[in-house]
Design a protein that fits this description.
Length: about 190
């Protein structure tokens, strides 16, 4: 569990700098230069992600049951995850209504993904992983929206074409991940 926790602290910590220490972040970027800052940020993120993956795998070998969710919540999680994939797609597709309305659909997608997984799983390592990501996404979403309002940020209006691309891309990515990649990468068949 130590590796999982260390990975979460590193990964979510570096992704929280803008929330809790934005002035320090701005000074460091100016002092180091944009390329060096991004390189260091990426390196710490990758190390954190690797530790999360390794730590989660190790924690799964000695599971601690906190609760046993009803089977129906696994099916509900499939819907939550589908919505999460659509929201993440909305972060990258220009001129869609989700981006125009939410401003930060990827963070909304992380919230939905993490919440759905908390409903469907009940092991301590699951609660640590998904609970940490849910808490981080809630705080980061609120911080980002507040920062947008203070800066007067307005996102481009959505179009039907953008919405269709978002939904199609999100559904295809979800289907590929749910039916093939999740088992290969995570070792669990969510649709089985």
């Amino acid at each position: 569990m130590t590796w999982l926790i260390l990975g979460l602290v590193l990964f979510l910590g570096v992704h929280s700098i803008r929330i809790f220490a934005n002035d320090w972040r701005v000074r460091q970027r100016a002092r180091m230069g944009e390329g060096a800052w991004k390189g260091l940020y990426s390196l710490v993120s990758v190390i954190g992600l690797v530790l999360i993956v390794v730590g989660f795998g190790l924690a799964r070998q000695q599971p601690v049951v906190l609760y046993v969710p009803p089977v129906g919540l696994r099916h509900l999680n499939a819907l939550f995850t589908l919505l999460a994939f659509v929201l993440v797609a909305a972060a990258y597709v220009p001129a869609n209504h989700l981006k125009a309305k939410l401003g930060h659909p990827m963070l909304a997608g992380v919230k939905v993904w993490a919440f759905g997984h908390l409903l469907a799983t009940g092991m301590l390592h699951d609660v640590l992983l998904f609970g940490a990501f849910l808490l981080w996404a809630i705080v980061d979403f609120a911080s980002s929206r507040r920062r947008d309002r203070a800066a007067g940020v307005a996102y481009p209006a959505g179009t039907v074409k953008g919405d269709v691309i978002v939904v199609v891309a999100g559904v295809i990515a979800w289907a590929v991940f749910a039916h093939w990649l999740h088992l290969w990468l995570i070792g669990v068949q969510p649709m089985g």
